[in-house]
Amino acid sequence: MTRRWSVWALATGALAMSAAAHAAPPTAAMLANACGGCHGTQGASAGPSMPNLAGQSKKALVEAMKAFKSGERSSTVMGRLTKGYSDADIVAMSEYFSKQKPTAYAQAVDAKKADKGGMLQEKHCGRCHVDDGQDFKDDAPIMAGQWLGYLQIQMDEYISGKRKMSEKMAEKVKHLSADDMDAIAHFYASEKMGETK
Ligand code: HEC
Ligand code: HEC
Q1: pLDDT tens, position by position, 92-138
Q2: Which of 17, 52, 92, 127 counts the highest number of beta carbons within 10 A?
Q3: Which of 188, 190, 174 has the alpha carbon at shortest distance from 121?
């Protein structure tokens, strides 16, 4: 290569690179920053009415975001918020949060309710919320270590019909009272996410 040629190649190379940097889409971590005020930058949420996302199943996160965006799932803030994101953004953020390490919060739960809830969950819910809710199957979310407050809100919304259940889940839930559902919420909240099975 002559010197002149190599200088030209360097200059155009640098130009191409700066153009690429401009056009580069935001990284998943940059996108996820917008969620940090409520869900924590690494998915450990700021308070009990907002779910932890760290370590959640990617599939469950994607499904939840898409359901918020389409309006199929009831919400206070997520419906409006998800409208600003493309499906690709949703997948990227879900991937990011699913890879964050869950924080094991010590939550105050009612031990008696948690005991009862553990038995009920095994019988009625464990087919999909597997391993005592510490793992997931298909698009069912992981439940272990989720905030009690958030779980109670979701249970109430399912029972009142505000949030729609899948037919198969509804088939199980219909045998349970509101107290039973509350007991199961205490059970899931009593577990530490990522605890040895
Ligand atoms: C202003 C607070 C706030 C912000 C910001 C926010 N969320 Fe949420 N998020 C919530 C609340 C509250 C819920 C419960 C549903 C509702 O009421 O909207 C929720 C629910 C969710 C759920 C459902 C989880 C589950 O277990 O079903 C997902 C997924 C989620 N948010 C992802 C995100 C992502 C990704 C962002 C950033 C783009 C984000 N959220 C930004 C408050 C927030
Ligand atoms: C046939 C599979 C199946 C069974 C059985 C099932 N679930 Fe679910 N569950 C799901 C799926 C899938 C979702 C994800 C979103 C949705 O469909 O609402 C979910 C979501 C949930 C959520 C919301 C979690 C979140 O992060 O927002 C709660 C709470 C819940 N289930 C409780 C229960 C309880 C309690 C039982 C037993 C009485 C049960 N489920 C049985 C499949 C199931």
Answers
A1: 999 999 999 888 777 899 999 999 999 999 999 999 999 999 998 88
A2: 52
A3: 188
